[in-house]
């Protein structure tokens, strides 16, 4: 097994205004997720948020601490959210086994000592998508299946954004310090996510796109409302959205994405919205 980490520093809107396509992708696109037999991380200095993946095939994968954390264990001062976007698998946390099917989620609290990822079938591995944020208090570990999620049905076919928002690791479902995660699926015929576009000045957010067919793509929009930029995203890739940036996207076909965020509050509706006619 191997563990890889990439560190990305925070940038402000003034620096990003002059970026070309390559610079924009290098700073905000996470392309190397879902590597087999690897625990992969990007450590972002926006809210010290971490986005990663674990795909165990031939043998289980252990969550190891990293030099960047300066801690004896990975979760010494952190909490972890996990959503499985592959075949069935399990996560063992301090000896307790949690079975995760497709789109099931697991919250692991601060000071969980040992975490191991496993697939039920090495030929059809689980794909664990990971988000982590600093934590000041230990809350209980909790499995949240798709049946446990709080579901919001929003949008319409008329505006090409009919979708189901599955709120999974949020404070109305599970206690967390600051981490929140959920899963949004667009219905056939709908391609736009997160309209109206918005900013979270008090939170960082990351979008992980999946169920994007091989020949299809999603155009993710970011930047200040009056200085927007775009990044083309493919299956099982993520985009880091800074607090000063909007986040929205449109695909060449319907798709799903996982949103994860952390910051100074747990108010899901704490956002500054911008209608389509306000964007530039």
TrEMBL record:
Which UniProt keywords are given for this protein, alphabetically ordered? Isomerase, Metal-binding, Zinc
Q: Which GO terms describe its molecular function?
A: 4-deoxy-L-threo-5-hexosulose-uronate ketol-isomerase activity
tRNA processing is among the record's keywords:
no
Query: Pfam families from the xrefs?
Result: KduI
Recite the UniProt cofactor note for this protein: Binds 1 zinc ion per subunit.
Q: What is its EC number?
A: 5.3.1.17
The cofactors it requires, by name, are: Zn(2+)
For this protein, the record's SUPFAM superfamilies field holds: RmlC-like cupins (SSF51182)
Write down the top EC class of this protein.
isomerase
> For this UniProt entry, which residues form the secretion signal?
none
Membrane-crossing residue ranges in chain numbering:
none
Q: Which residues are recorded as binding Zn(2+)?
A: 198, 200, 205, 247
Q: Provide the reaction this enzyme catalyses.
A: 5-dehydro-4-deoxy-D-glucuronate = 3-deoxy-D-glycero-2,5-hexodiulosonate
Pathway assignment: Glycan metabolism; pectin degradation; 2-dehydro-3-deoxy-D-gluconate from pectin: step 4/5
Which family does the similarity line name?
Belongs to the KduI family.
What's this protein's function? Catalyzes the isomerization of 5-dehydro-4-deoxy-D-glucuronate to 3-deoxy-D-glycero-2,5-hexodiulosonate.
The protein's name in its UniProt record: 4-deoxy-L-threo-5-hexosulose-uronate ketol-isomerase
Q: Which organism is it from?
A: Thalassotalea castellviae
The root-end lineage is:
Bacteria, Pseudomonadati, Pseudomonadota, Gammaproteobacteria, Alteromonadales
